[in-house]
Amino acid sequence: MVSSSIEDKAKTLRLLATLLYSAAEVIVKEWEIEAEDPNHDPLLPSETLYHVRRAVVGACGMYSDLVQEPQHRLMELSLQHFTARCLHITARTGVADIIAEADTGSGVNIKTIGTKTGIEPNRLTQVLHALCSLNIFTEIKPGFYGNTELSRQMVNNEPLRNMLVAQGLSIFSSSVELPTMLLNSAGAEKPRKTAYEVMHGAPFWEYFEQNTAKLDDNLNQRPELEIFAHAMIGAGRAQSTPVYADYPWEALQDGTIVDVGGGVGGMSLDLAKRFPRLHFILQDRAAVITEAQAVWRQELPDAVATKRVQFMVHDFFKEQPVKGADAYLMRYILHDWPEEQCITILSKLREAMEPHSRILNVDHIMHNTVGSAHLKRAPAPLPANYGHAQLFSHMFDLAMLTLFDSKEHSPEEFASLAEKSGLKVVKIWECRTVLGVAEMRRDDTALN
């Protein structure tokens, strides 16, 4: 007699197989539609393709988990940090660009790649073999390597490469100390030091802005600051394109957006190119604003010349100097701070807002396996949040814990932060990407 547990697993396996088969047909049709559109943006899938793609990723992950031997699966997961490390190494040394420049169709010899990267060929082979098994590169014949669709994304793409390198510098190295941070936090509201601070000797932002002495005794900014600034542009271009399409920015007409803690203004820069009537005030720390001015002069000089963009040194824990703006934009801001500081940031904006003003929080919107009434639910037998398709957001959530003792927020958590700041969430905008928009307005009833 077949046990009920085997029957349940068999039923789930068959449901997943059916889901994958039907999804494959939908994806092929969507690919054919895209191929006929000369203006198609690969970073902006159709609504249909986006959701079915998430279902496929979730189903493939669940399928693999069902059929793999459980102990082997756990041991495999325990070593997956090496996957990230291999990717960091190839991004940092420009392997994809080296292959693209030298490949004539039969692959590039590992000795050539080793010479140009400065890595001994036999050791580099071990790195590339791991990535070839994940289809990030391909071994065309023994010792000769080519790019795949994945690795080609890095070719001549400095913003993306900077993003991958930055994650290797900051997040990966600090994660080594995450167990220490968590184990030392028992019974405390917050740990004495974040994992990042334990690893680097200073909090994240303070470390980035410290000067370092060079051999000639001149003081220069740490190279990580420039890498991080350009990484934010890379992250924006890779993740934010659907945000530009799925939130109604045109409703702001010729309004003013204050980009609070906007870094070099990567998101505002993209919005300025897409919506030429909008005006921007970019706010951040002095060192970052200096970098931002250089980026804008290179990327969109007319906006600087016509003062369509203005640059302002500002600490978002202090009074917001721009009153009554149409929108206060914060991308990747609240996830950098624990709850108390998030409430302070939002409260300072609340004080500056007029009834027409809005706060637009652009971040990962956390969706857990139990689901949320505010977010689309995955089809059965997948968990409510699409399972493996949500993994990147969970990894980013853990990155925030590592760097700042903070988190990505669910719709319910955004609502709680808003309520404690005299605000209300009027809508969670789900976008065709890992990011969403939590839109907040003043809640004048909270003052009564």
TrEMBL record:
Gene3D superfamilies named among the record's database cross-references: Vaccinia Virus protein VP39, Winged helix-like DNA-binding domain superfamily/Winged helix DNA-binding domain
UniProt keyword Cell membrane present: no
Keyword Methyltransferase listed: yes
Alphabetical list of Pfam families matching this protein: Dimerisation, Methyltransf_2
Domain O-methyltransferase C-terminal: 255-422
Coiled coil: none
One annotated GO molecular function: protein dimerization activity
Domain O-methyltransferase dimerisation: 75-155
One Gene Ontology term from the biological process aspect of the record: methylation
Key words of the record: Methyltransferase, S-adenosyl-L-methionine, Transferase
PANTHER family the UniProt entry points to: O-METHYLTRANSFERASE CICE, PUTATIVE (AFU_ORTHOLOGUE AFUA_4G14580)-RELATED
Protein name: Uncharacterized protein
